[in-house]
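Before we proceed, please read the two lines closing this message. Let me know whether the C-alpha cells fit the sequence:

…
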Amino acid sequence: MTTTTRELYGFERYERAKHAFDDARYTDAASDLEDFFTDLAAARAEGDANPVGHGTAEIHLLLARCYFHSAQLGRAEAAAREVIAEAPDDAYAHLLLGRTLQRAGRADEARGPLRLAELLGGYGTAAGPAAKVADEGF
C-alpha cells in the first residue's frame, strides 16, 4: 500500500524529503515539502496558529537546497529568504542565498549574504561563483 504525503505527519514528511534529497531526487523532495507547506497554510487558515509546534526554518532550508540543486533559482532564493526571516543568524542560509544569487548572475546582490555567511559561520566565500554549496551536516 502506498502512503501519500498528506497522510504523513510533519516529521515523517521531512524525513521522507531528506531521503529523496540524499538520493539526488531533488524535485521529488521539493514536491513533498511543498505539499507540507500547502497543508500547513491550510491548517493555519482554519485557525490553528501553530500546527507544527515549532518553527519551519529547517524545513524551508531543505526546500531551498532542493530548489538550488534542481536549478529552480527563483524558488531557492525565496525559500532561503524564508529561513533568514525566521533564523537571521543561520549562516548556511546566507551562504545558500549568496550562491543562488551568484548562480542567477546577480553577483553584486550575492556579496552581502556571502559576507554574512563568512562572518556568522566561517564559510569561506573566496572560491567564487563556481564554488559548490556544501551538503555536509544537513
Q: What stands out?
A: Confidence is low (pLDDT under 50) at residues 1-8, 134-138. The radius of gyration is 15 Å. The chain is about 65% helix and 0% strand. The first helix runs from residue 10 to 22.
